[in-house]
Amino acid sequence: MKKILVTNDDGLYSAGLMASYRALKKLGKVFIVAPTMQRSGVGRSISIMEPIRVGEVSLNGIKAYAVDGTPTDAVIIGIYEIIGDLPDLVVSGINLGENLSTEAITTSGTVGAALEAATQGAPAIAISLEMHNQDKFDFVFKPYDFSVAEEILQEISRKILKNGMPKGVDLFNINVPKNWNNEIEFTRLARRMYKTRIDARFDPRGRRYYWIDGKEIEDAEIGTDIHALRNGKVSITPISLDSTARVEFDELKRWYVEG
Questions:
Q1: pTM (predicted TM-score)
Q2: What is d(CA 202, CA 211) in angstroms, rounded to the nearest whole number?
């Protein structure tokens, strides 16, 4: 039987985690190993300066493992402690809120978990559902409509389990729109998803503190993940672990010598 590891960055009690379980339970044995609490925005952070505690819990009668750490920690614990072997597939999500552009690849805990799984040698998927801003911060079980995301996740997972990952692809970053137009597009990463801003405030003692915030970019170039999602398409972006810039090294040498 195929072994599938499911994790996320929204925490063990996210509605999206159970949506993933529903989509995958007929494809193999599903192991749920996820952060105990909400850990969005931690990227690929790993706990190397403190111990990690793990507890077995029941989610609506389904056995799961609560990891007192990051999504990356959950993947490592899941592979080497819970399963004890490399799974046939690792799925991170379904995340509450889209993960788009190069910003998401470097900051999202959802994508960070998939990157860790791919590094360990497992086929990996990061999947996210577009939501209104306020809904992104609700992490408990709620009656969201995950039906399209579940359908897409099941179909892509079935293909990976049958045929493996396409050559040169280490993981897929999938984003599902709120209102799907029945189209799927393979995309590249947009440059940015947010225009960064800082909200400065004062505490009751008059000391200044800050919230880092961002205004979402409405659209981007044709062919990017942002453009596809904003136009009602499911965006599937193939990601490689090799982040080396695709440039000619001879050109770099000339740049260095002549500069």
A1: 0.92
A2: 11
